[in-house]
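SUBJECT: A protein chain and its fold
Encoding: whole-number codes for local backbone shapes
RECORD BEGINS BELOW THIS LINE
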Amino acid sequence: MLDADLAALYGVTTKRLNEQVRRNRERFPEDFMFQVSPTEFDALRSQFATSNAAPGRGGRRYRPHAFTEHGALMAANVLNSARAIEVSVYVVRAFVRLREILAAHKELAKKLEELERKTEALALQHEHLAANTRAQFKQVFEAIRALMAPPEPKRRPIGFVTPEDEQRS
């Protein structure tokens, strides 16, 4: 995320954000923040059609900084605006929730694999367990794995859709 976008998100000026980054440079290693290359800067300027005017008139004379997700969070910590604190808390909670979801998913996958191994071992011990029953167990495990997969996002059709077409969907 570029410094200007991050500053807007945190409710401060780009100048203020960069000032705080300079004052706290030790908190921003290269994997948290870097300055865009001259080639990237030229591409950004042509993409957004910014002028060569002075900074106060819409143009930039210096290359912007780009922040990774860790750098964006660190920027919130060095800024002292109410909005930066609010966004920082939100980001931390989002990462904690994501970690919980991933841990639960891994645990469920591990238990499913363990259960599948146990049923295979049981099937091998008891030859009278029919092949049909083993096939049914496999189908159950495959169905559970399919339910664990994230759902495909619903895609909107391209073009004009009539109400009749919408009802058929």
Observations:
- The chain has two domains: 3-80, 103-148.
- Residues 35 and 65 are 4 Å apart (CA to CA).
- The beta strands are 33-35, 65-67.
